[in-house]
Known about the structure:
Layout (H helix, E strand, L loop, with lengths): L8 E5 L2 E5 L1 H10 L11 E5 L4 E5 L34 H5 L8 H9 L11 E10 L5 E9 L2 E8 L4 E9 L5 E8 L12 E6 L8 H4 L9 E5 L16 H17 L10 E4 L2 E2 L6 H8 L7 E2 L2 E2 L1
Parallel strand pairs: 9-12, 9-13
Antiparallel strand pairs: 1-2, 3-4, 5-6, 5-11, 6-7, 7-8, 9-10, 10-11, 14-15
Amino acid sequence: MAEDNPAELVIDADRQATKYSPQDAEENLDDRTIPEVHFKTSRLSVRTDSSEIRMNTDSTVNMESAAPQQGTGTPPTVPNLGRPQSAPMSKHQQKQFFAYRPGAIEAAVNECKPVIKQDVDGEIRGVWLLTEIDHWDNEKERLVLLNDNSLLSIKYDFVACKLIESKRIMLKIIDKVTHGLFEYPDKTIATPRDGTGIRAYWNKGVEPSVAAKWNPWSKQIPWITFTSHPLQFKEDRDTDCYKIDTFKPAFVQAIQNVQESKSSEGATALSVLEAPLFIDNYVGFASLVHNQSHLGFSRERGGISF
């Protein structure tokens, strides 16, 4: 635009330009005439630093550039839904977990070795510290020992350094393993859980009774669900023992080894699925308070440790 006339407007029409300025407006008001402007194919151009958008009045807008390119090999972006459970914690938050201390897991394994029966479980093949999710959607810190013939899910008190309770699951009775995202009912007030998990079944498709499902302390639930531990993003040491992604292949392989063994009588055929893990939680007040406060973990809570 010219410096002496900053209000000048230029309309481009087939290489012809009509200039309209405030001086022209005053003259038109005096003679009550309207300036005649001819244009056939006006064009509006908007430029940004990274792209140019053009709109032509005499042609169809080309939307091919907005469509995703096929065959480029770039996977689609999946939105991160649910509460940010798998988001990295600050180092201060991580240190509140007593399992964060150097050597804590090794010491826990040594304390729990008396529960291992060599003739039943076999040798230890892997150790993980994971989050178990019960049928009421409560998260619980569990020391998981994967053995030749069994899986031990152990409740260990990292504050008092002692074993509280253990649950043994024989690998030969597991008939299905499902890995995937967590799925909740459409009309639930529970906050959806982010991340993936793994669930092992030994019910052969038979659902537990209603009484067992509605009992938060029931021991008759024929499946077990795990997800990664909150310490999976520790930066200063190995984190594989906290991740469900490293547990899954070892767990599935151990089950297959047992079922293929000739010495394993009564083994059940295993099916491995990639599918959502349904959490039957419609109310969720209790689990919401439990999980948000990390009551299922050994950690410091404002000067009080439990």
